[in-house]
């Protein structure tokens, strides 16, 4: 988060999109207890940065997560939809084979 201040963009808020509502709840709530000290310290760091307003966590359905095309195998219409979004091509409806 300090990099944005170094280049003079301290007033810009980052939007973090997440398709897992449990992750959103755990990240934005100071509740629950992690069993590992490492997990507990990471959770506290994320929570503190969220409370300070360094970023916002927003829900985005899995069908609209463009990053999924780089992280998991997609087939059929899900692949075509996200590939069109990445390439900036118009949506072309194709029948399933």
SSE topology:
Elements: H1 2-6, E1 14-18, H2 21-28, H3 37-51, E2 55-59, H4 68-71, H5 76-87
Parallel strand pairs: 1-2
Radius of gyration: 18 Å
Shape: extended
- On the 0-100 scale, what is the average pLDDT? 80
Number of helices: 5
Multimerization state: single chain
Major pleated sheet:
2 strands, parallel
Placed side by side, the strands forming the largest sheet appear as 1-2
Number of strands: 2
Structural class: mainly alpha
The fraction of residues in strands falls at: 5-15%
- The percent of residues in helical segments reads 40-55%
Which blocks of ≥5 consecutive residues have pLDDT under 50?
none
What string, H for helix and E for strand, traces the elements in order? HEHHEHH
First-residue to last-residue Cα separation: 46 Å
Describe the 3D structure.
The structure is a single chain. By secondary structure, the protein is mainly alpha-helical. The chain has 5 helices and 2 strands; from the N terminus they run H-E-H-H-E-H-H. The protein has helices at residues 2-6, 21-28, 37-51, 68-71, 76-87; strands spanning 14-18, 55-59. Strands 1-2 form a two-stranded parallel sheet. The N and C termini lie far apart (46 Å). The relative contact order is 0.14.
Question: What's the quick description here?
Answer:
The chain has 97 residues and is mainly alpha-helical. The chain is built from 5 helices and 2 strands, in the order αβααβαα.
Name a few traits of the molecule.
single chain; 97 residues; mainly alpha; two-stranded parallel ribbon; 5 helices; 2 strands; 10% strand; extended
